[in-house]
Design goal:
It comes from Ciona intestinalis (Transparent sea squirt). Pfam families: Condensin2nSMC. This is Condensin complex subunit 1 C-terminal domain-containing protein. This protein has three domains: 148 residues, no CATH class; 148 residues, no CATH class; 115 residues, no CATH class. Helices cover 73% and strands 0% of the residues. Helix 8 packs parallel to helix 10 and helix 14 crosses helix 15. The radius of gyration is 36 Å and the shape is elongated. The relative contact order is 0.04. About 8% of the residues have low confidence.
């Protein structure tokens, strides 16, 4: 017996037995159950209690696969989970001389180990009757309270997780006032522990565990609103777990997530946070702004409301949320957004000549559209178009791959309807709007269309690019070039750049010709002087256009896929190197 126990201990210390902890635990338990009374006492002291002592003193490592304490803990977990008497009495008897002393040890590692073992064994069961059991439970609660207020953040952290686990599992055993006091303590004090973000993170993890018990919801309904500012915590992991907490709150029937944290706070964080947190916030808000059980008109109404609250946050939301929509939902959403923009254009027209050809049936949501929200609606149309990835006249790949014929047919009809309405909408929007944000959205939407569906715009963009003055804003140049390249007209842009470079060389050569007479020289100088200024301006524009193409990764990548564009790029390169 002693030799086998020694071999097991040696294998654990050599890390060879780490993966066999469950097997060793079962072996210890079965050996104990099969032993007679005298052998049991000997086995308990020599083997089981020895494992307990070694577990309390074992070093902890961040990597579980290399943690000696974890190896011993797994063995003991297999023993303490056996709830058939007299095993629980044996566990309490063997732990008593080790556990209570270790919980008060000076060494923080020993206290942490003892705390883990205590939570694994909870509730310890005494064989001394009801009075002894009540005393033992009170001692356990006192120990837990001490661990939660420990001076070491690591111990406070594991204590929070530990007591939330035992409260969830043993809700009926623990007095209600104990649960209320400890839960209030973590929500009002430990959730704002400035000394350690790990403690604040553990509070969120523990409350998620506690939420899995329906009996806790009435208590948490009163306490969770005190955590509303945790969404703005400086630590990313705390914010992440707080969002997970809100998502779990959303699944309950009694608690509403907006009562825990105001929606305005959530939206404000959506505007500034990173990808990981943003995806959680989108999951949380998706049912509110894109409710699956509501009409698409309700989606538009809430979209307008969203943009009126926070423009950047709303755009970010739809950018992430689009991937959770079906193709048909996205298409219907686009059509309803177009209807709202049409209504705004029609209602803001001053003369009869500006009336639109489209006659739409409008609901209350369309009537609340303001010009500030039009930016957002146009941006959302573009976001949804990107998701659907239309290629007119061919259908989208996503629709073509749809296995259901009826769904594909409906989607095809919606696609045709969208492509019929969008050109007219864009034409009127270009006449109405001239600010940067709206123009950017309009050009991006136009780039998703086929050039043949917008003949006026597609034929005028290149002349506009050619005629732009030197002081044209960069954003406008960017819009025009991006639209042309997406329409597979990048070659024309490069031709224009090459033409301006070569024109500057011709002008330089012209200025170097010999002059035969004074009068002709004066005449020639005037002509060449004017041309050189104009060519210099065009050369500068050529550099600006070329630089933009090279600095924009998506544009440059698309140009390099075209053999004709590559030839022009080589010609420009040879010219610049000459």
């Amino acid at each position: 017996m002693k030799g086998i126990h020694g071999a097991i201990i040696d294998s654990i210390y050599s890390m060879l037995g780490h993966s066999h902890g469950h097997m060793y635990g079962n072996l210890y338990y079965l050996t104990w159950t099969l032993a007679d009374k005298d052998q049991k006492l000997h086995f308990e002291e020599i083997c089981i209690q020895d494992v307990m002592y070694r577990a309390v003193c074992a070093p902890r490592n961040k990597l579980a696969s290399q943690c000696l304490f974890t190896s011993f803990q797994v063995i003991l977990q297999e023993i303490v989970k056996q709830r058939t008497l007299p095993c629980p009495h044996m566990v309490e008897r063997l732990y008593s001389p080790i556990l209570w002393r270790s919980l008060k040890a000076t060494n923080a590692m020993v206290r942490a180990n003892a705390a883990n073992l205590l939570f694994d064994a909870f509730p310890l069961q005494s064989d001394g009757g009801a009075d002894k059991q009540n005393e033992l439970l009170q001692r356990l609660f006192t120990a837990i309270e001490s661990l939660v207020s420990d001076s070491q953040p690591q111990i406070r952290s594991l204590a929070i997780i530990g007591f939330c686990q035992i409260f969830t599992k043993h809700w009926d055993v623990i007095p209600a006032h104990v649960i209320a006091i400890q839960t209030r303590n973590i929500c009002t004090n430990l959730a704002f522990d400035s000394s350690s973000p790990k403690v604040r993170q553990s509070v969120m993890e523990g409350l998620i565990i506690l939420l899995s018990n329906p009996f806790s919801h009435r208590l948490l309904q009163k306490l969770l609103p005190s955590l509303s500012n945790c969404i703005h915590d400086a630590n990313e992991k705390v914010r992440l777990f707080f969002m997970d907490l809100l998502i779990n709150v959303k699944k309950t029937d009694l608690i509403s997530f907006w009562d825990v944290c105001p929606v305005n706070n959530i939206i404000a964080q959506l505007d500034v946070d990173n990808h990981t947190i943003t995806s959680r916030i989108v999951d949380l808000l998706e049912g509110s702004f894109l409710p699956p059980d509501q009409n698409i008109k309700v989606w538009v109404k809430r979209c307008i409301n969203f943009y009126s609250r926070n423009h950047n946050a709303a755009r970010k939301f739809y950018l992430y949320a689009k991937d959770n929509l079906s193709i048909i939902e996205a298409e219907k959403f686009i059509l309803q957004l177009c209807a709202s923009v049409f209504y705004f254009l029609q209602s803001s027209s001053d003369t009869s000549s500006e009336k639109l050809e489209e006659n739409q049936n409008h609901d209350e949501s369309s009537q609340n559209v303001s010009e500030n929200c039009i930016d957002g609606l146009l941006e959302t149309i573009f976001i949804m178009l990107q998701y659907v990835t239309y290629q007119v006249p061919s259908m989208t790949q996503k629709v073509a791959q749809d296995a259901q014929k009826e769904t594909t047919a409906e989607s095809r009809n919606l696609a045709k309807l969208i492509m019929t309405k969008l050109p007219g909408l864009l034409h009127n929007c270009f006449k109405k709007f001239h600010d940067k944000r709206k123009l950017n959205s309009l050009f991006q939407i136009s780039a998703c269309m086929h050039p043949s569906s917008m003949p006026v715009l597609s034929k005028s963009i290149l002349p506009k690019l050619r005629a732009l003055p030197e002081d044209s804003p960069d954003y406008y140049i960017k819009m025009l070039i991006q639209c042309l390249v997406k329409w597979n007209m990048g070659r024309e842009v490069l031709d224009l750049v090459h033409e301006w470079f070569t024109a500057s060389t011709d002008a330089t050569q012209t200025t170097s010709k010999p002059r035969r007479s004074t009068s002709s020289a004066r005449k020639y100088q005037k002509t060449v002087g004017f041309a050189s200024i104009q060519n210099e301006c065009r050369v500068k524009q050529a550099v600006i256009y070329l630089r933009f193409c090279m600095e924009n990764e998506s544009i440059w990548e698309k140009l390099l896929k075209d053999k004709n564009c590559i030839k022009i790029i080589y010609s420009i390169s040879d010219f610049l190197n000459s």
